[in-house]
Amino acid sequence: AHHGKWPLQAPVTGAYQIAAARFDQMLLLEPNRRYWEKHEALPISLTIVQDETTALRLFEKGKIDVLTRIPALDHERLKKQGAIVSFPMVATYFLAFDIRKPPFNDVLWRRRFSAAIDRHGVVQALGSGEAPTWNWIPRGLEGATQEPLLPKKLHDALAQANPKLGTKLAPVGLAYDSGGRNSLIMEKVQDDVRRVLGLRVSLEPADWKMHIRRMKEDPRPIYRFGWLAPFIDPISHLRAFTSESPNNYTGWKDAAYDALVEKIARLPRGPERESLIRQADLRLVEDEAVVMPLFHYVQDYAVSPRVRGFRAAPNSVVRFSELSREP
Predict the structure, then answer these.
(1) What is the DSSP string of 11-36?
(2) Staple 243 to which of 42, 73, 96, 253, CB 3.0 to 4.6 Å?
């Protein structure tokens, strides 16, 4: 009936359906009266606000009940006010290389760059409770491990580094989606790498759509991204860097890694699968160093005291049907 296009008023099987939408501004959800479970669900307005500071102002004026992105500089203040609620999250914040571009076509430079970033300093600057990490697989998923020390191959590569060599190289571009939180992290990375390796990093922020487009068409030598497990299993994280993955912008293709991931996908949970997951993780972050995990997320929301029943699952699903609100 709609000639292959997804209609705004599409039939749904969940507790909500779209009642109205304004592109880049808002979505209005209304309860699905045909939903199998009877409940007194609230209508939900999802307001899209590009600027974090503007969104915070709307929250503090009572015009938004739940704030999903909290400006880094306001986090501690809101936490002291009791406005922030936190939940675990199976997601990884990371940088990755386009290994086709120098100097990162050399695995030693990839290892040095990764080793130079002070993960603990990054998390400390954010002040929002994330867990610094050298590992790709987040806590809560099978095979996850939290190595507290710099992995050996990264350590060895850094020990061989000469800052004078870095000063002789042209600046390398680091692309990321703009926002106060990301800017804070990238400036810290820029400073760490200049201080430790002598390498100059050119920061290249862009809005989200341009950032995605740039990664698809011509990735910068380094780019920022995040990865969330859609279900509680590490296979989605591992497949993100297989040769044919549409989400792999690194140019890295490794048949042995692809075969390892497919073997993991077929195995039941247990010691053998767990061991192979750790092996795949090490190949990504240490052996080949194509990805630089910086931390595993926690979910922080600023929630109005009049909202009741708000909670987020580890994969960020919020069940709107459980919410209620005082007048």
Answers:
(1) --SSSEEEEEEETTTEEEEEE-TT-S
(2) 253
Helices (H), the chain: 52-60, 75-80, 107-116, 119-126, 152-159, 163-167, 180-197, 208-217, 235-239, 255-266, 271-282
SS3 state at 195: helix
What's the pTM value of the predicted model, to 2 decimals?
Answer: 0.87
Residue-wise pLDDT tens digits, 135-189:
999 999 999 987 777 899 999 999 988 889 899 999 999 999 998 889 999 999 9
Closest alpha carbon to 71 in 172, 162, 226, 179 = 179
Q: Taking the mean position of all CA atoms in its chain, how far away is CA 159? A: 29
The CB-based long-range contact list for 48-57 (8 Å cut-off, 24+ gap) reads: 48/24, 50/24, 50/207, 52/179, 52/180, 52/181, 53/180, 56/302
Identity at 280, one-letter amino acid code? A
Cα end-to-end span (Å), the chain: 41
User: Among 164, 222, 171, 225, which Cα is nearest to 201's?
Assistant: 171
Instruction: Give me the residues paired with residue 85 across strands.
Output: 301
Q: Which of 244, 243, 260 is nearest to 252 (CA)?
A: 243
The CA distance from 248 to 287, in Å, is 17
Q: Do 301 and 75 form a contact (C-beta atoms < 8 A)? A: no
Residue among 194, 223, 204, 217 at smallest CA distance from 98: 223
> Residue 144 in contact with residue 234, Cβ under 8 Å?
yes
Asked whether 215 and 247 are in contact (CB, 8 A), the reply is: no
